[in-house]
């Protein structure tokens, strides 16, 4: 009942020219896998060009962040309406944004509300650091990130949200969480935290992705788990064969 979703987070990689040729290479394979919602999130500079390249392909486009205000004196920022011109999705609260650009649960909350208000699907990232993991604080931390990040959002809007559980120690490290371990966090912490906010049946309908060193070899293991509905993929999303294989593995 929850359609699988695989999103590629290209991070700060690829010029427009490089992005265009990567998408041209990926598109024939990705186009065919309709059973999976697939999304590409390139840097802002490539959104215009890729929105044309992806038009009618069934492959969605997302931004990696945005501001919550509609316009104004926010040098360097991009407004929801500007993202919405080209995209259907926006990643919010990625751990790299939280770590390097001072994003907090409070700014995440504002951004999620802005995304929902304008009709963008927010892909909202949560997850613990290595120190928090080792201290056994994962459950409490994600609980807090969910309750604060989604404060004031109505149940009727909640089903439009996608959550990505990304343990920080697993991002870009090659040290992926075990599929059982990741699933346990989704099942025992993230979904219950959302059930607290919106009730069990709404929480059951919300898609939760796993992210952190997902690759072509380990993807299927995650997708076989009860609560993992897809993946947010960094490094492997820049490789045609790997990303296509990950999307393929998410077929129900
Ligand atoms: P990774 O990144 O797949 O390279 O670990 C995941 C992410 O940051 O979304």
Give an overview in words.
The chain is 44% helix and 15% strand. It is α/β, with parallel strands linked by helices. Strands 1-2-3-4-5-6-7-8 form an eight-stranded parallel barrel, surrounded by five helices. α5 (105-118) crosses α7 and α7 (138-149) runs parallel beside α9 (179-198). The termini are close together. The mean pLDDT is 97. The structure holds 2-phosphoglycolic acid. 2-phosphoglycolic acid is lined by residues 9, 166, 171-172, 211-214, 232-236.
Topology:
Elements: E1 5-9, H1 16-31, E2 37-41, H2 47-54, E3 60-63, H3 80-84, E4 89-92, H4 95-100, H5 105-118, E5 121-126, H6 130-134, H7 138-149, H8 155-158, E6 162-165, H9 179-198, H10 200-204, E7 207-211, H11 219-223, E8 230-233, H12 240-249
The structure holds 2-phosphoglycolic acid.
Features:
8-stranded parallel beta barrel, 8 strands, binds 2-phosphoglycolic acid, TIM Barrel, 252 residues, alpha/beta
Q: Characterize the quaternary organization of these chains.
A: single chain
Number of helices: 12
CATH superfamily: Aldolase class I
Helix coverage percent of residues?
A: 40-55%
> What is the percentage of strand-forming residues?
5-15%
Give the name of the CATH architecture. Alpha-Beta Barrel
Structural class: alpha/beta
**Total domain modules:** 1
CATH class: Alpha Beta
Cofactors and ligands present?
2-phosphoglycolic acid
What's the short version?
The chain is an alpha/beta fold and 252 residues long.
């Amino acid at each position: 009942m929850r359609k699988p979703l695989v999103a590629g987070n290209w991070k700060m990689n690829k010029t427009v020219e490089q992005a265009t040729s990567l998408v041209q290479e990926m598109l024939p394979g990705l186009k065919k896998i309709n059973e999976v919602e697939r999304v590409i999130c390139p840097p802002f500079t490539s959104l215009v060009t890729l929105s044309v390249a992806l038009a009618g392909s069934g492959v969605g486009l997302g931004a990696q962040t945005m501001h919550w205000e509609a316009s104004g004196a926010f040098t360097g920022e991009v407004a929801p309406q500007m993202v919405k011109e080209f995209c259907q999705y926006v990643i919010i609260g990625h751990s790299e944004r939280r770590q390097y650009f001072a994003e907090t649960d409070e700014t995440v909350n504002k951004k999620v509300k802005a995304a929902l208000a304008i009709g963008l699907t927010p892909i909202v990232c949560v997850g613990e650091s290595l120190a928090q993991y080792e201290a056994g604080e994962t459950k409490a931390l994600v609980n807090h990130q969910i309750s604060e990040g989604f404060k004031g959002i109505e149940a009727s809007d909640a089903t439009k949200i996608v959550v990505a559980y990304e343990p920080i120690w697993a991002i870009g490290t090659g040290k992926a969480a075990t599929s059982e371990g990741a699933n346990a966090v989704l099942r025992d912490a993230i979904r219950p935290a959302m059930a607290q906010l919106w009730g069990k049946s709404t929480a059951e309908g919300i898609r939760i992705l796993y992210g952190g060193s997902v690759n072509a070899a380990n993807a299927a293991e995650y997708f076989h788990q009860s609560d993992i509905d897809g993946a947010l993929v960094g490094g492997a999303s820049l490789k045609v064969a790997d990303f296509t294989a990950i999307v393929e593995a998410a077929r129900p």
